[in-house]
Amino acid sequence: MKTLDLIILIPLAMGAYRGYRQGLLLEIIAILAFVAGIVLGFKLLGMSLNFIKPYLGESKFLPYIAFSAIFIPISYAVLQIGKMFRKSLRYTILGNFDSWAGAILGTLTAAIGVSCFLLLLDWVKVIPPKDKKDTVIYPAVAKIAPAVVEKIQQWIPSAENLLKEVQKAVQQQQSPNLEKPETEKP
Predict the structure, then answer these.
(1) What pTM, to 2 d.p., does this model score?
(2) How far apart are CA 138 and CA 53, in angstroms?
(3) Are 16 and 107 in contact (CB under 8 A)?
(4) C-alpha angle with apex 118: 48 to 36, nearest 5 degrees?
(5) What is the largest CA-CA distance in the chain?
(6) DSSP designation for 2
(7) Distance between CA atoms of 184 and 76, rounded to whole angstroms?
(8) What is the tens place of the pLDDT at every residue in 78-130?
(9) First CA to last CA across the chain, in angstroms?
(10) DSSP summary character for residue 87
């Protein structure tokens, strides 16, 4: 196992722990919040980039900031609704089962999130190929986000070219930075 695999394991373990604490019901709602945040984050990425760019200027981190500006508030709002439901389930006979099933689902949720992040990092070529070579966990986790987006595109016809649109928007934000000649300093 290489360093990249160990780095990927950290959020997966955190997802399992969080899932155990929150339980299955809240994890299902968290997944719905997560998917809604991802879909709307990717769908509105171009608009968000155009809105934020005048304030932050050119930066290779601009796509991440723009995505987060959409993803975080949407996910947070849906999660707060789910927490109200979890409180009522905690003290029933299903409470223990809910916790262990939540750990499994929490790990899967974290894997989707890590996969989306790895996909963005791959598009801007942050991780060198030598670091990906001979990894065990990276190849499996990296395949998750494209598969999820493909399924979403099947369920939601208006999201047909979602992944390509996002990749194009991210790469367009990176291209101006790479092509600009350096200005001479006085």
Answers:
(1) 0.61
(2) 32
(3) yes
(4) 45
(5) 73
(6) -
(7) 45
(8) 888 888 777 777 777 777 788 888 899 889 989 999 999 998 888 888 888 89
(9) 49
(10) H
